[in-house]
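Exercise: predict the fold of this chain.
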Amino acid sequence: MCGIAGIVNIRGQSVEPAEIERLTNLVAHRGPDGAGHWFSADRNVALGHRRLAIIDPGAGGYQPMLSHDGRHVIVYNGEIYNFLELRRELEALGANFRTESDTEVILAAWRAWQEGMLSRFNGMWALAIFDTETKELFLARDRFGIKPLLYAQSPERLVFASEHHALVQSGLITTSLDIDVARRLMLDAFGIEGSERTLCREVRRLQAGHFMRLRQGRLEIRRWWCTLDHLPDVPSTETERVERFGELFRNAVALRMRSDVPIGTCLSGGFDSSAVICSMAAHDKAGMGPRDSAAWRHAFVAAFPGASNDERPMAEEAAAWAGVHPTILEVGRQDALTELERILEDSDDVYISLPSAPWLLYRELRRQKVLVSLDGHGADELMGAYQQENQSAAFRLKNILAGVASNSPLARRSVDMLRAITVKAQGHYFLRGGPGAVPAQLSLVGDDDALPREWGALNRRLYRMFHSTVLPTILRNFDRASMAHGVEVRMPFMDWRLVTYTMALPEASKSSDGYTKMIARRAMAGRMPESIRMGRRKVGFNSPMPEWLNGPLSGWTASLLDRKVSAFAELVDEINLRKTVDRLTASKTWDWESVGRIWPYLNIKWMMARFA
């Protein structure tokens, strides 16, 4: 796991060393274990890398890395979990290896299979490979967009990096606000990450499951992965389905325990993270495999004393089952302003709350020299998390939007109508008409996928939440919160084999008898605490925002709203927004619904003020 960067001067001028050094340094937090740069012979291509040493942490794993013959050079962020199996396959084809790293395996795979290598990888990645003979640059992102890759192109150059702010602050590109994206983020903070567009008009996101080539100054982008093309046949009985799910999940956990440094987990006490740590313990008992980290007994729990989202007792129960003594990090009112400005900057985008809790927890992992965390992300969007009857009217409308197929004019008009209803129901603060009008739908990855006719509303909604809206945003948040401290997050529920299998299952395997995630709950029978396995309580891993906004954050919020930011004033009815915030603060009636509705406005005003 690392930070990558690159500059290609299309018209042939040399890249100045200071340019690539500055760009690379802007992602230095992602890789505190080393830095490297590479220049082409004519100096018009430069690649940069900041290293987080996980696999082959010695000198052999340094990047940028050249192939044996010197033709190809790579910078790469991520992990290929099945690199040992691929290495054996490539050795049978005649490849020789000098290191124990997965990076060298990627280079050999590129030589053997070109872009065909991507479908053989089980992992997460954002990578760039430059061919010194053809002068072509190849960039690719993993199936589900776990690892980020952003870029900006002009007639003069292509610039890419692991984070949005690195490009914006690099001085290498012009920058301007994308008004449509800003409006969309205030309406729905989950509606952007699946698109190619960002808050900066000049910066684009390489979407999940896509690759791109730069050839003779022309950029070609193609989608290489569509989940629907890989749905397997599933067993006919529920017993067999459960057995197969369990096999896939346990193997996904085992693969992600491969590490040459200590690993652990962030444990919330909910089903997902508890299933992960209990499966880690089971893998240890069954016998560890090659390159598995024996130093895995580390669990980190964020506790919120007195807050509604405190799950410490359940987390301690899961840790005890796994035979792990957890580290408890109490996050309270005193932490509302802790590193606030840095956390907002590290977040790199807009969200529905302040991600202080995960940011502080991953900092604790780094302080204790635990550099890898196996977490439960992806399970909610893969198998469902929230019961429909417990949702607010506005949230149900968002779920309808998430489930509507958008590949026809009629469907698109329906989406626009439902969006307008949602805006009214939620009481958003757009100015009427002009630049504050309700934004049109942006094109999201997976929008036009032709879902199987036999799929019902649940499977359709989950497909869109997983690929297009909710999960891409969650992945970005946890990537930035963890990599702010040089900590790698691995996600067993996002193993592509498990994802395609679960997507193919009937809805009854995911939601039945008043429970979500039924297939996983059944697969974990006898393998984790029963109270957690069949628990109905669902709490997201969030900072206690209602308590904070009712108290210690109120002064910061008032100060932010007092600031004059012209771009924000052109979009938002600040008078009514201020009235609502003042009323909620004075009456101390902030709740999760009002936080989710209003925090994106505060977040985006901070960003506009910070980068104006």
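Check your answer against the key: The first helix runs from residue 17 to 25.
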